[in-house]
Amino acid sequence: MSESSLVKHYMTKEVITVTPDTPNEEVIKLMKTTGHDGFPVKTNGEVLGMVTAFDLLLKPWDNLVKDIMSTDIVVADQDMSINDAARVMFRMGISRLPVINKEEKLVGIITNTDIVRSHIERSTPMKVNYFKKTLEQLYGVKTKLSRRKVPTARLRPTQNKIYADELQGRTYELKRGLAEPTITVKSGDRYILVDGHHRTVAASHLGYKKIDSYVIELEKDIKLGLEKTADKEGIYSLDDIEIIDDAQHPLIAITGSIRKSIK
């Protein structure tokens, strides 16, 4: 198990909490403003329970959190593997785990969304390594791989169109810190965007100056075939990418057909 597969690397550290004496009306307001459907109940850093939308909906109404909160809860250690946390959540039928440290203080929360994000991020390196080896074989060069923030304005796109529905999804992910890094090749002083056009355009629209990327750096300046194709199509900046809103991204379209088959 790699170190990067631990709960502490994927959990949300800025946890919104309530206390046992928080009025339940405030909890409802908090759910409306944050979009979260549950919060850890904490006193002096220690987790005493959880209050969720189910508690508010299914239990007799009471004014305070302490009267309806669930106290029989499962917590995760921050050094627990992400796979073990996923198994616990699946077996218990729960969507989140408060995370504690060795002093049993609340240090974060891990949700099913974080589990999905960890899966995506762990699968991306396989794609990166595959592309890295392909470049080395195709151009007969050595490469160096790093992960860092790359200025969005310096990225040279190689794709002439993206889909509006996928762009909306990537915008949602970026706002919540869920998007996986892009894949970029650095040749000479150029940053060529290979994978992650929707993410990069979404980041640009959100005003992000930099984006998290896997950067494959070539040992010498080579003009890639991707660049030559981009030259022919007149793609030099993110502004040259067309956003298609009258067709669905292939992934979204497949999801739609599955839904139809269920009905």
Automatic annotation (TrEMBL):
<feature type="domain" description="CBS">
    <location>
        <begin position="69"/>
        <end position="126"/>
    </location>
</feature>
<dbReference type="Pfam" id="PF00571">
    <property type="entry name" value="CBS"/>
</dbReference>
<dbReference type="InterPro" id="IPR051257">
    <property type="entry name" value="Diverse_CBS-Domain"/>
</dbReference>
<keyword id="KW-0129">CBS domain</keyword>
<dbReference type="InterPro" id="IPR003115">
    <property type="entry name" value="ParB_N"/>
</dbReference>
<dbReference type="InterPro" id="IPR016427">
    <property type="entry name" value="UCP004699_CBS/ParB"/>
</dbReference>
<dbReference type="InterPro" id="IPR000644">
    <property type="entry name" value="CBS_dom"/>
</dbReference>
<dbReference type="InterPro" id="IPR036086">
    <property type="entry name" value="ParB/Sulfiredoxin_sf"/>
</dbReference>
<feature type="domain" description="CBS">
    <location>
        <begin position="11"/>
        <end position="68"/>
    </location>
</feature>
<dbReference type="InterPro" id="IPR046342">
    <property type="entry name" value="CBS_dom_sf"/>
</dbReference>
<protein>
    <recommendedName>
        <fullName>CBS domain-containing protein</fullName>
    </recommendedName>
</protein>
